Amino acid sequence: MEWSVIWELIDPRLVGVVAACWAVGFILKSTPAVPDWTIVYVVVIVAVLLTIWMLGWSADSVVQGVLAGSFSVYGHQVVKQTRSIGKKN
């Protein structure tokens, strides 16, 4: 799946939420006491809460929050995997 397909589903007002989630994920990854498997869940919960705070409570806000959090995790993995390909060659 391409970035553009996912990005079209996310409300443009949530660019800051995606960036904030990327930063939260980076901070959590750098914290030794936080298990890696929990990072995805924390990032998505933060995204949903920020989205509800910005857009108000609705089912659409929850879905948008999940999309924003998921997109930030997906974006991080794309960058990480692309870098690892460059290191192998």
UniProtKB/TrEMBL annotation:
This is Phage holin family protein. The chain crosses the membrane at residues 12-28, 37-56. It comes from Paenibacillus polygoni. It comes from the Bacteria. Keywords: Membrane, Transmembrane, Transmembrane helix.
